[in-house]
Each structure stands twice: as C-alpha cells, then as structure tokens.
Amino acid sequence: MEVASSYNGEVDGRNGDSGSMSRLKVLLAEPDNQVCADCGSPDPKWASTNIGVFICIRCSGVHRSLGVHVSKVLSLTLDDWTDAQVDAMVDVGGNASANAIYEAFIAKDIQKPGPEASFEERSNFIRQKYELQEFVKPSLRIVSSSSLSLGSLLQQNSSSNSLDHDMEQKSIGKMSHASRLSGIGHALRKSWRRRESDTKETKKNLSALGMVEFVGLLKIKVVKGTNLAVRDMISSDPYVILTIGHQTVKTRVIKSNLNPIWNEELMLSVPNPMPPLKVQVFDKDTFSSDDSMGEAEVDIQPLVSAAKAYINAGVYGTMQIGKWLATSDNALASDSIIKLVDGQVKQDVTLKLQNVECGILDLELECVPLIQ
Fold this sequence. Notes:
Protein name: Arf-GAP domain-containing protein
Shape: globular
Organism: Araucaria cunninghamii (Hoop pine)
Mean pLDDT: 79
Keywords: Calcium, GTPase activation, Metal-binding, Zinc, Zinc-finger
Domain Arf-GAP: 21-136
Pfam families: ArfGap, C2
Largest sheet: 6 strands, antiparallel
CATH class of the largest domain: Mainly Alpha
Number of helices: 10
Order of helices and strands: HEEHEHHHHHHHEEEEEEHEEEE
CATH topology of the largest domain: Annexin V, domain 1
Number of strands: 13
C-alpha cells in the first residue's frame, strides 16, 4: 500500500516538534503498529489521533466519512502534528492496546477485513467497530449521555476485574496496565462523548450517505481572500466552508478583515462518483444567521486524474502537467495550472466568488490517490 510521498517506513521529521515525532516514530516501529489496525495492510501511513490507531489509506477514507467526532485522521507525512496529538497516540499505546478495547467482543460470525477487502466490507466493519461500538464490552459502551464517560466505567471495572486476561496481556507494554487504560479511556472519551440524539443524527446521516467508495484524499490549503464583500457596518468576519458530497470542513473565523489570510490546511476524501468541490464564504454573526459572502465550485476531476497518472512517475522538481482555463462557464479568476512538484500533484486555484458583489479566494489543492 503506497502513497506518493517520501515516506519509506519513517515518520516525517519535518512535522511537529522533533522530540514528539521521535516518540511517534518509536511507537510506529512496534510490530502491531506496522500494519493497519482495521485490515492488516502493511506500512500504514495514517493515524486516528483521537482513537489512537495507525491505519492504511483505504481505511482512512472510511474513518473520515464517520466524522471527526468519531475519528480524527492525520497523515504521518502530509500533516503537521501537535505535541498533544502525539501524546494521545503514545498514551493509548498503539493498535494492540486500542484493539483490546474496540475488538474485545467480536462475534464468531464477524470476519475482520483483510488488506484486499472490498470497500463495502471495510466500511461495514469500521462503522461497527468505532461508530456503533458493537465489539466493545457492553458495560463500557457509551450510548446515552455525555456525562457517562468511558474513563469512569474503566475505573469501576478495573477494581472488579473488568477486563479479561487476554485484553490485559495485549495492553501490557512499556507503560503499566493502569496507565495504558487511562490513555485509552482519554482517547475514547474524545471519540464517544456525545448524547443519544447525536448518535441518532449520525445514523441518519450515514443512511443518507450510503456505501460510498473513496478514490483519494484532497488536501486543500485555504490561502487568502481578497476584496471580500462587506456584510457588517464597514467590514466582515469571514470564514470558508468546503464541501465534497456529504463531507464538510471549515476554516477559522478572521475578525474584521476583507482581505483575510488563513493559510489553513484542510482535508476531504474524494468519493466515486466525483462531485465538485463546493466553496462557500460566510460572515460570522453573533445574534443572527451568518451572511453569505459568495460561493464557487471547483471541478477536481482533472487534478485527481493527473494524480493517478503521475503517482509513480519518479519525477522531481516542478513540471506543468495540465491547465484548467478560465472561462465564462466557471468561477476561475485566472487559468489554473496543474503541476508535479517533487512527486506530488498540486493545483493553484484563484476563484472569483459567485452570487456576490465582489471577492477573490485563493486555494492550493493537492490530491493523494488511493493505490491498489
């Protein structure tokens, strides 16, 4: 399982503090963490920081579809890591410790997917495992109230031999069993702390989403806005919402600025069939609904196709491989160049916001396709 990067079994030391990344590298080197926690694919390059597991790129697409309230996915090579995110991974102890909780009670008729599993098999298992908590010990499931934390249940059960001997053996490592459980409880509280109504709403959204296959990951850097529309007295408080299909992410709000600079990186999975990237800019209001400051759509098909074609090209330096022309039929403010930069396929996009009196938005896109 490969992605277009310089990863060679190593955590990229340019991300985050070198001391923290060294600890993450040590954790990744443990045998159980050298395969995907969900399907067993070798050499995982992604991680769920709030669950505490290392996963492959195919499983990472399913994790992203669950929403960040269930699983927050980061790349070991493409994303910047904070010390807190590394601490969360280390506290859990990796795949074996997390799976000792999440896979403790798998029924005999449930088969864990393998590296060659179909998307449907992979998606069903991951949703059962993390979203529905079907393999967690019943007394540890959180389904009714945010006040009922898994940490408190772990503490109660710890005093009365709440975990089986096999689970204890999986969790024992360099850290003590008690501190490992504390770390797992901390991660699972982040993942599962929500009310029953939230769970029902999630299931409703999953039903609407259906079984969607993902073909890649789109990394979007929201760079800046220029001459945005005034929505308050003399200025605006803009933020950007990005949507692909049923997935939505947004930037932070920048107060009182018509020329905001975000330089904020976000990521979405690319589904098949492939809808456009929808971009919306809003003005944040405190006492009323947020006001629209324009919108646009970006056709990501050329970028994704180029990424698939050049993923193993072995070309370094910068090379233009395509161009999306600005016309009256699209929202481009200028021609958009697709280029190969040290093996990575990127596209700079300058958008003229639509359905608004003025405004320009600059984005930088990068596509990481899934590889068979």
